[in-house]
Design goal:
mainly alpha; 0% strand
């Protein structure tokens, strides 16, 4: 990866972490427990949105839109790929944890 991609990726990861912290803090302030399924669904939707934006940017570049730069397309594409891979890893860990809990004796 080039340094531009790493810097952009780092900024976006920090922004996601800040957003996650704000969601958790707002749930604590409201006195309610955050609903895991809603949080996970929100994360899946965010990954889907990122992939759709990357696809749209790629399409606009392929159509010859002069406002779209190849570096923007590549960065957005890499962010979408990394987001998807991270979501896949989270899903795999959740499935593994679920299977481990189900195999526990009562």
């Amino acid at each position: 990866m080039s340094e531009i991609n790493m810097d952009t990726l780092l900024v976006q990861m920090r922004a996601m972490a800040d957003k996650a912290n704000t969601i958790n803090q707002s749930a604590v302030v409201q006195g309610s427990n955050p609903d895991f399924s809603n949080m996970f669904q929100s994360a899946v939707n965010k990954v889907n949105e990122t992939q759709q934006q990357a696809g749209e940017l790629k399409t606009q570049f392929e159509l010859g839109n002069p406002d779209i730069d190849i570096t923007d397309v590549m960065v957005k594409s890499q962010v979408a790929t990394v987001s998807f891979q991270a979501m896949t890893q989270v899903r795999n860990r959740l499935v593994s944890a679920y299977q481990e809990i189900m195999n526990m004796s009562v």
